[in-house]
Amino acid sequence: MRRIVKILAVLAVALFILSLSRDTLLFYARVAKLYTQEPDSKIAMPLQDVSKKAVADTWHAPRGTGRLHEGQDIFAPRGTPILSATSGLVYRIGENNLGGQTVSVIGSGGRVYYYAHLDSYAAGLEVGDRVSTRTVLGYVGTTGNAQGTPPHLHFGVYTLKGAINPLPLLTDRPAPVLTKNKPKESRANEP
Ligand SMILES: [Zn+2]
Predict the structure, then answer these.
(1) Ligand 1 centre and the CA of 182: distance in Å?
(2) Which of 19, 23, 72, 133: CA 20 to 30 A from 9?
(3) 96 near 144, Cβ under 8 Å?
(4) Is 142 exposed, middle or buried (0-12, 13-18, 19+ CB in 10 A)?
(5) How far is the CA of 171 from the centre of ligand 1 (A)?
(6) Ligand 1 centroid distance, CA of 36 (Å)
């Protein structure tokens, strides 16, 4: 009887380790696949109602001593949902001094898209989650060194060689489509 319990315990531990490593392996397999793909030449504006024209180009603007701005700031009211600019995988969720609450997504070509100063994270968002351009990552805020400034999203794009300017890649999101039921008359004309 004791032996059976022991065997069951060992089996349970083995299954637990297997399930963990399977998730980890799956994550690395997906990251590896992303690396083999061409990086996106166009990415979606992370805030639905902000147009590209509204973004004042602050790429490489001086920030304090010897630091350049490695991204773009996109201003919007606190709490505005931040949508992923690309499809990909959630790579990191965490806090740092400059960025405050941040989410990083790895996309095609192994590029990392960095969203910073978040007021809060999207509920249930986890590292390893697959995202699309319709996935909410979090909400606009002023965490990190954005405290005391108008709420904005700091958006950065990193290649293996370092940061690149996100602005030329950004494209406006189409206005949300309001779907209506097709009137019956229009169907009569269809073949
Ligand atoms: Zn910034």
Answers:
(1) 45
(2) 23
(3) yes
(4) middle
(5) 19
(6) 29
Q: How far is the CA of 74 from the centre of ligand 1 (A)?
A: 8
Distance from the CA of 155 to the center of ligand 1, in angstroms? 7
Distance 153 CA to ligand 1 centre (A): 7
Ligand 1 center to residue 150 CA distance, Å?
Answer: 12
Pairing type for strands 170-171 and 43-44 reads parallel
* Secondary structure tally for the chain: helices H, strands E: 2, 12
pTM strictly above 0.70:
yes
Asked if residues 109 and 40 have their Cβ atoms less than 8 Å apart, the reply is yes
